[in-house]
Amino acid sequence: MIPRIDHIGIAVHSIDESSKLYEQLGLEIEEIEEVPQEGVRVALIVCGESRIELLEPTTEDSPVRKFLDRRGPGLHHLCLASDALAADDRRLRENGYQLLREKPTRGAGGCWVQFVHPKSTGGVLLELSQPAGEEPAE
Predict the structure, then answer these.
(1) What is the Cα–Cα distance from 126 to 7, expressed in whole angstroms?
(2) Which of 64, 69, 86, 101 could form a disulfide with 136 if both were Cys (CB 3.0 to 4.6 A apart)?
């Protein structure tokens, strides 16, 4: 089940530069973390019950670097919180949706994540995320 929007991911060239806007709005960076397997640095900004995730590439072959090269800074993905990621993964596959990974993997904060290809979602990269302390449940 999907109880809420977890975060909105925004591709940026520089977390330091991009975070200034959110700070002017009274929002603060909760933490900055590097996710080496994705080639990004991630800044998490709490906004009510959701978060904004600024994604800064750290490698030349990072998917976020490729996104920035093609489209420039902007909305990268929408993430929905899942309380049963394995079941959501299975249901989407069974119904013909194209997922980007063979199975859920670890993402920022140690969360379990899966991505749904934009071709299956009307053009939006959709991430599903389940908290770190829980194995992806059926």
Answers:
(1) 11
(2) 86
